[in-house]
Amino acid sequence: MTAEFVEHHHWPVPPPDGYTVDDLFTLPDLPPHTELIDGSLVFVGPQRIFHTDAMHVLFSGLLSTAPPEVKVKREMTVVLDKRNGPEPDISVVHARAVTGRRQTHFKAADVLLAIEVVSPDSEARDRNLKPGRYAAAGIPHFWLVDMAGPDDHPVVQVHELGKATGTYALTGIYHDRVKLSVPYPINIDLAAIDEL
Hints:
Strand order of the largest sheet: 3-5-7-8-9-10
Largest sheet: 6 strands, mixed
Strand content: 25-35%
Radius of gyration: 17 Å
Number of helices: 4
Order of helices and strands: HHEEHEEEEEHEEEEE
Shape: globular
C-alpha cells in the first residue's frame, strides 16, 4: 500500500466493542456488499466468473419454481443479531418480509434458505463461520456451493437445521441437478452453467 493511497483514504476506526448492524446501515461511503461479521466490517473482493454464473443458475432455478409465498433475492443483508449482518449470495425469504423497493435487509426469521457461493477471498467465512451463524439464528436451510471437477461446475452441499441440535446436518451433495422438496419443490439443472 503506497503512502499516497493511505494519505487520501480515511478508514473508519471501529468502536471499542465493534460495529453493530445499525452502524452497517448508517456509516457513509462503505463499499457495496460490505458485511458485518462478529462486529467487524468485511469488504468483498473481486469475484470470479464462476461466482456470477453459479449465482445466475441457482437464482433462476429457484425463481422458476418458487411458490407465491416466497421470494428469491440476491445479495441482501440478513440481520442475524446486533453484531452480525452477513450478505448471503442468495436468500429465499417469506414473501411477507419484502416490504418495498427501498428495503435494505431482512431479519433472520424472514429467511428460509441462505446460499453462499465459495470465493477465494471468503472461503473460510463461507465454509466455517457463516453456517454456524446462520444456524444459531434459526435459518432452516443452508447451501454451500463450490467449483469442482475438470469443467469447473458447481457442486451444491445442502444442509438442514436440526431442531434438537441447533446445527446444520448435511442432507445431500448435488453435482448435476438439485432436486429437493424443501423448502419448496426445487429442480435446478447445474449443467446450465455451460450455457452462460
